[in-house]
Specification:
The chain is 31% helix and 20% strand. By secondary structure, it is an alpha/beta fold. The protein is globular, with a radius of gyration of 23 Å.
């Protein structure tokens, strides 16, 4: 087989089977970085690392500060999961017990330090860089960090008291500069740490980086940007109106809070479709890495939800029909046979997505968790549009960012009500914009200052205080009428 011309960003081989970073976390945090037109690097000596600190996953990119060359990408899981899968659980743990904060901060620093060590080590092994004295830990001059407000505060060792009660204010506001050693880093002890600022409340530095990217790339356009993750950040740029909010989507869309949910790693069902022709139609799935599925990740969950609704296995409210009810509704026989009321683990009705040898099910409870997440994101979008007096039809683009937003099927998202039913050409699956923004702040001090200015332009909307959000949330708990 002919080798690819482009090297894999994980193992650096010209031909690979998805090894390296793709075997760690197959998220959009590996997608190739593309800076907006007009972005200019300000050259410096040495190396730099840009980190995207997510609630679920972490990513780091190693850069040559002199020419802006990307030297490596590394991803890993956030090790704080034992304190809770969602950000609220971690805030509560940190506020209730200061020792928990110390443990969470130490776990995070150790993991980020290990990632940095691997990045520099892997770059030093590349043939084209072996002779350069650049690749020494003391040459990692600086590192930028973008994450939600809670993750950044925990990294800094700040107890997130302001986020634990109304009016939910951040406990730090501007860019924070620290020496690595003061935060507990060993490998990066001499590195200048730059923790980027939040917009407000639960709308963190990661959302500000998304805005920085979109504002530079589409300065005159009306853009809705959605970074879908455990905490869904939504930004709207509509004329002079610039708004931001955070929707508590929870972990369901990243595979958490779902009975067999998992991240997008080997063994995860990431695509669900219909195969065959009526009346012999049946479910077909795609599994990351091939073989039998062991669970299902976010993109697969939304595909499954859309397909089951389309087939009438689910009704408008999300109710899962029994096999008998589905048959009466005209669901093909093979599909009906996948519905079971027998579940020793709680008696929930469930749907078999794979085969019985290594089954992956979607339960009635899973459906409800997904509906809650979908409604939170969609209602947040529409609340901002109402605040700005902007109609959906007026939007030039809808940018989808984050680990989930990059891989989700647009049609599935529309059919479940997660996305509005607008011209498909308006959707831009843009990749890890939080990580890209952090890299831009690393490579340009001018850009770093512009992020501070961007923060002042944005109006932070607290959804809990918006009556419109409550009404929209109830409305979007149901699936849209069949499209």
């Amino acid at each position: 087989m002919e080798s690819r011309k482009t090297r894999c960003p994980g193992c650096r081989r010209e031909s690979c089977d998805g090894c390296g970073i793709y075997q760690k976390l197959n998220t959009n945090k590996q997608v190739r970085i593309s800076f907006p037109e007009g972005f200019e690097i300000q050259p410096e000596k040495g190396l730099g690392i840009s980190f995207d600190v997510g609630t679920t996953s972490l990513s780091g990119m190693l850069w040559n500060l002199e020419d802006g060359a990307l030297l490596g990408v590394e991803t890993d899981a956030n090790p704080q999961a034992s304190f809770g899968m969602d950000v609220i659980s971690r805030i509560q743990a940190a506020v209730e017990d200061g020792e928990n904060l110390v443990k969470m901060q130490r776990l995070l620093v150790m993991r980020l330090d290990a990632m940095a060590r691997r990045l520099v080590g892997a770059a030093g092994e590349k043939d084209e860089l072996k002779e350069k004295p650049l690749l020494k830990e003391e040459q990692v001059r600086k590192a930028t960090f973008a994450g939600n407000t809670a993750m950044c505060e925990i990294l800094l060792g700040i107890q997130p008291k302001g986020l634990s009660e109304a009016p939910f204010e951040p406990d730090y506001n501007g860019t924070v500069f620290k020496k690595g050693e003061s935060l507990g880093f060993q490998f990066l002890k001499d590195t200048q740490m730059i923790v980027l600022p939040p917009i407000g409340g639960f709308v963190g530095a990661d959302a500000l980086m998304v805005y920085s990217y979109v504002n530079l790339k589409e300065p005159e356009k009306k853009v809705l940007a959605v970074d879908i993750g455990t905490n869904g950040e939504i930004l709207l740029q509509c004329g002079k109106g610039k708004f931001a909010c955070s929707a508590a989507a929870g972990p369901a869309l990243e595979g958490g809070a779902v009975s067999q949910g998992m991240r997008a790693v080997k063994g995860a069902v990431d695509m669900v479709s219909l195969a065959g022709s009526f009346p012999m139609q049946d479910i077909a799935v795609r599994v990351i890495g091939g073989g039998r599925g062991t669970g299902i990740c976010g993109s697969g969950l939304v595909d499954a939800l859309a397909l089951l609704y389309h087939l009438d296995v689910l009704d408008h409210s999300g109710y899962m029909r029994s096999a008998q009810e589905a048959g009466k509704a005209g669901v093909p026989g093979r599909i009906c046979n996948r519905i079971s009321d027998e579940n020793k683990e709680g008696g929930q009705r469930r749907f078999l997505l794979t085969d019985v040898r290594q089954p992956v099910y979607l339960t009635a409870g899973d459906i409800r968790q997904l509906q809650l997440s979908i409604s939170a994101i969609r209602s947040g979008m529409e609340t901002l549009l109402k605040k700005a007096g902007c109609r959906l039809e007026e939007l030039d683009y809808i940018y989808l960012a984050g680990a989930f937003g990059c891989y989700i099927g647009i049609e599935s998202g529309i059919q479940t009500g997660l996305f509005p039913n607008v011209d498909r050409e308006k959707f831009v699956q843009a990749g890890n914009l939080a990580g890209t923004g952090a890299a831009m702040a690393l490579l340009s001090s001018k850009m770093q200052k512009q992020t501070e200015e961007g923060k002042k332009q944005l109006v932070h909307v607290e959804l809990a205080e918006e009556p419109a959000f409550q009404e929209l949330f109830l409305e979007h708990m149901n699936f849209p009428l069949q499209i």
